[in-house]
Amino acid sequence: MAASPQTIALAAVGSMGKFVCEDLLADDRFNVVVISRGRDEWFTSRNVPIHVSDYSHDSVLSILNETNATTLLSFLNLNDERYITIHKAFLSACIASHSCKRLMPSEYCGNIETHPARPRFYGTTREPFRQILKTEADGVEWTLIENGWFMDYFLPKEKSYMRPVPDEFPINLDDWTARVRGTGDEPQSWTLAREVGRAIVALCADTKGWEPVTYVCGQWGTYNEVIKTMESFYNRPIPKTHTPAQEIRDYVAANLDNDQVYAVQAVMCDEWSIDGATEVPKDITLRQREKYFQNCKFSTLEEVLAMAKGVRGVV
Question: Contact 149/218 with Cβ under 8 angstroms?
């Protein structure tokens, strides 16, 4: 007799969460509910139940208990103290819940082993909550998903749910330019959001036990290398400008008190890249790929570009 589907609760579902939602809906091992501040046609058109919430402990706990959710996935993308406050409510709701004893906070960063405070606005939001998880999880299993840059930013905007971030990402498809930060030879990682989502679904089904940090990656390399890949694929040179590493570091140092200003956060992402902090550790990533993701595909940039060319709509 087949086991009953487990219910996965998705909170504050944004761009990344839509990929996860689609793959959960396609898998008969799972039911899906969404916890959101409001209703969204994207979910109602797919018959996904939406539970409106203010993200407080009492509100989230009520929803988890009502739906018998077993896992709470957060996609809350805030870069101020609200990130900590709301995630603490998510954690306390899981602790108090009769069924939901797994939590996946919103992360999607790089190598937090060596660079836990990069980008810097993660150092004041994600890193404090990581420390809370280590001491206050109280029976709740958790893991942090780290994937480097989303590879979707190499794609035309109609090919992904991920919104373009031209001020953060060095390649601008709209004007076909590249801004090389530092030397361009600093190590990086990129992973397609769709494949990050499939890894999350695999973890939802896993019974071996989660590790505190889970790394995934489609390609390791440098921006100088992937710019050449883009030029070769499209048979078109990309005009380049260069921003020296010291210029980036000086700007960040002069604006440490302005880390809630988006323009400053964008340069802090430059610093994240020139530090090599987006590169997830290859040894851990490949070990975890063998442990958790044997049935998951992680594509290179060239494979993703070819995939996008061959399909209409979202990759």
Answer: no
Q: Which residues contact 163 (CB under 8 A, 6 or more apart)?
A: 15, 157
Distances (CA, A) of 311 to 16, 18, 159: 19, 18, 9
Q: Please give the single-letter amino acid code of residue 29.
A: R
Burial 245-256 (b: 16+ CB within 10 A, else e): beebbebbeebe
Output the CA torsion sign for 45, 46, 51, 56: negative
> 120-144 pLDDT, tens per residue?
999 999 999 999 999 999 999 999 9
pLDDT in tens, 71-129: 999 999 999 999 999 999 999 999 999 999 999 999 999 999 999 999 999 999 999 99
Residue ranges of the alpha helices (H) in 235-300?
245-254, 262-274, 282-292
Cα 114 to Cα 118, 124, 127, 248: the distances in Å are 9, 16, 12, 20
Q: Rounded to whole angstroms, how far apart are CA atoms 289 and 128?
A: 27
Phi, psi of 179 (to 5 degrees): -110, 105
- Average pLDDT over the chain reads 97
- Work out whether the CA dihedral 294, 299, 300, 302 comes out positive or negative: positive
Q: What share of the chain is helix, strand, coil (3-state, %, to 5)?
A: 45, 15, 40
Residues 6 or more apart in contact with residue 186 via CB below 8 angstroms: 222, 223, 273, 274, 275, 276
